[in-house]
Amino acid sequence: MYEPRATSHAGVVVNELMSFQLIATSPILDWFVMIVHQDFDWWLSAASRAFLPKPLSFFSSRLLPVTTTSVAAYLSWVIFQAILYHFVPGRLHQAPRMPGGRRLIYKLNGLNAWLLTVILGAWVSYAGLARVAPDDKGHFWYDLFNDGELHPRTGQLFDWKHFNASRTGGIIAWTLIDLSFAALQHQQFGSVTNSVVLAVGFRAVIVAEYFLYEDLYVGACVVTIQHFSRNPCHYSKGLPIRFFETLDGAHERFSFYSIFGFAVMMPHLWTLQTQYLATHPVEVSPVAVALLVAGFASGWTLNHIANNQKNMSRRSGGKFRIAGREAETIEAKYRTADGKVHRTVLLCSGLWGIVRHPNYVGSITHTWASCLTCGGGHLLPYAKAILVTVMCVHRCFRDEARCKIKYADAWDDYCRRVRWRLLPGVF
Ligand SMILES: NC(=O)c1ccc[n+]([C@@H]2O[C@H](COP(=O)([O-])OP(=O)(O)OC[C@H]3O[C@@H](n4cnc5c(N)ncnc54)[C@H](OP(=O)(O)O)[C@@H]3O)[C@@H](O)[C@H]2O)c1
């Protein structure tokens, strides 16, 4: 989790306590959620009543057996994804400048790997090989939770953080998980409801968009890198749009926060909607379908346009038009660890002139639309919407603290020009 590192004694102690608490409780919280939907039919209140008098036996009586099959299945999944990550062809892409001044190269083969994963998963299921079944000093804890390598690599292109974020649990696995639970609903009730179709479809749009725009280089030229001449591939010269310039890609370190978040929380908590709908089918009215699609589409479009405007500003150095008018930008400078000073721009017109994080507003909107497919029966399927809302609000502060350090006065100028973070007049 990127944030400026505490230096005062009190700050270090608070960070240590918070980090220890998060490392110790996150796996238990995730396990608790699994018990709520598996053993208490999604009732948080019933699970809490059973948990409070006997917290230890609540968990110890439900210890999951670690079988050879379960370990082999998970290892096979990770190894299979590692093989795809390493061997499937893809274009090369240069990521943004790191604090040290260098720019790393990534191989972008996510879209091919996603399609191969889903096709192979469908074949394995069709062939009957798998059945759908609910099945530093003083900074020890803080460093375990938050620190670690920024871009750990094996060889030239196997990047562990990128691999974990997109291939082990979250993102590439989402479609398989969603389709499995849609199949489970069909197995149990003989048909699939329109809400599960919407939930699966909404997330497939997010996954396809992620891999399609993992970088984006509209109009930029494609060049061959000489040192890859034995196996020539291409990389885009345009500026990146997705993972590589997000907080997760550019600034989070490969630590508990990033590893556990992507490998455990993302596949489990982010897909609670289809897990819930598999056993609690919800059929929504045509009007509700139209409203859900409109809500999702407007959130997704807002997020997409906001990200594009920001990336256009970076790619063109601020020389581009938004809705027919010249974009307005603030010139900003920053220094990397190699001592070099770099120039960039902060966009302050278009959506970025209304609020400082318009892409978060889009993310929050489309996430709520996808959770609303679950109707009003239970709170737990809304975990993703609640977490994304809290995370985006928290990210506003984390990201702004980083930008303030990086851009100093230019960032203050931007905040004076664009007063609101998420909602004009409110926040
Ligand atoms: N569904 C979810 O689980 C979830 C949760 C959170 C976020 N998201 C989404 O994930 C994506 C990435 O989010 P993120 O947290 O990494 O934030 P982001 O908004 O994509 O990136 C923030 C960075 O953009 C640059 N920037 C900030 N203001 C700018 C401006 N006015 N002009 C130009 N550049 C500016 C700064 O980086 P520089 O150092 O380059 O200047 C800043 O650190 C977003 O689309 C977000 O909505 C999804």
From TrEMBL:
It comes from Corynascus novoguineensis. Keywords: Cholesterol biosynthesis, Cholesterol metabolism, Lipid biosynthesis, Lipid metabolism, Membrane, NADP, Oxidoreductase, Steroid biosynthesis, Steroid metabolism, Sterol biosynthesis, Sterol metabolism, Transmembrane, Transmembrane helix. Gene3D superfamilies: 1.20.120.1630. GO terms for biological process: sterol biosynthetic process. It is a multi-pass membrane protein. It holds the Pfam family ERG4_ERG24. Belongs to the ERG4/ERG24 family. This is 7-dehydrocholesterol reductase. GO terms for molecular function: oxidoreductase activity, acting on the CH-CH group of donors, NAD or NADP as acceptor. PANTHER family: 7-DEHYDROCHOLESTEROL REDUCTASE, DELTA(14)-STEROL REDUCTASE. It is an enzyme of class 1 (oxidoreductase). Coiled coil: none annotated. Its EC number is 1.3.1.21. It is found in: Membrane. GO terms for cellular component: endoplasmic reticulum membrane. The keyword Transport does not apply. Signal peptide: none annotated. The chain crosses the membrane at residues 63-88, 108-129, 254-272, 284-306. InterPro entries: ERG24_DHCR-like.
